[in-house]
Specification:
The chain has a five-stranded mixed beta barrel. Helix content is 45%, strand content 19%. The chain contains nine helices and five strands. The N and C termini lie far apart (46 Å). Strand 2 and strand 3 form a beta hairpin. The chain is α+β, with helices and mostly antiparallel strands.
Length: 204
């Protein structure tokens, strides 16, 4: 698989860049922020590549200006409902360090600005990324050692999920119920109200 390309910019389109590497043109799908930061046509560029295969599109190359962005792109796609397009959309509005800050603040509005990400998916992204190494922790191409990180304070959604699990509700069901309840209650609900609403979701 291709992991890195160094060549001349041959074309820049709405979603793709064509990179000429010793006479071979590689079509690379990039986010809008990455495309806007590429050098001009005829100039040299280095892109970190994520290669993916699907039956519909065959092999597709996704390009990033740093290994950090590529790592977060991969991490985002481990979340249910987040495909390549949505992952690129998140990185367009929230580079890795900004995404880490948004997760720490539980800033659903910031994540929802991404193209293809609605409020429910934004909450799921925040829940799934909580406690994961983002930003500078991925700069070296791998996860930061967990022992070197200060433990993150429990989130409101995390506390509500734990409360439901304490009542014997399976974790996947508890997490989904809390997500639904959070969407229904809006920003910054009271913990007890969130737990009560989540229990109502479980009973539906």
């Amino acid at each position: 698989m291709i992991g890195r390309l160094r060549g001349l910019i041959a074309e820049i389109e709405t979603e793709d860049a064509l990179i000429d590497v010793m006479g071979v043109g590689y079509l690379v799908r990039c986010g809008a922020r990455t495309l806007s930061r590429l050098p001009g046509v005829g100039e040299e560029a280095v892109l970190h590549i994520e290669s993916q295969y699907s039956q519909d599109a065959g092999v597709r190359l996704y390009g990033f200006l740093s290994r950090e962005e590529r790592s977060v792109f991969r991490l985002l796609q481990t979340i249910q409902g987040v495909g390549p397009k949505a992952a690129l959309g998140v990185l367009d509005v929230l580079p890795p360090a900004d995404l880490a800050s948004a997760v720490a603040r539980e800033d659903k509005a910031a994540v929802s600005r991404a193209n293809g990400v609605g409020p429910k998916l934004a909450i799921r992204i925040l829940l799934e990324l909580k406690g994961k190494p983002l930003g500078a922790g991925l700069a070296a191409g791998g996860a930061a050692p967990m022992a070197a990180q200060a433990p993150a304070p429990p989130s409101l959604s995390g506390e509500a999920t734990s409360a439901l699990m304490g009542l014997g509700i399976a974790e996947p069901l508890a997490r989904r119920a809390v997500e639904e309840a959070h969407v229904r209650l809006g920003e910054n609900p009271d913990l007890s109200a969130l737990i009560k609403a989540a229990l109502q979701e479980v009973g539906k």
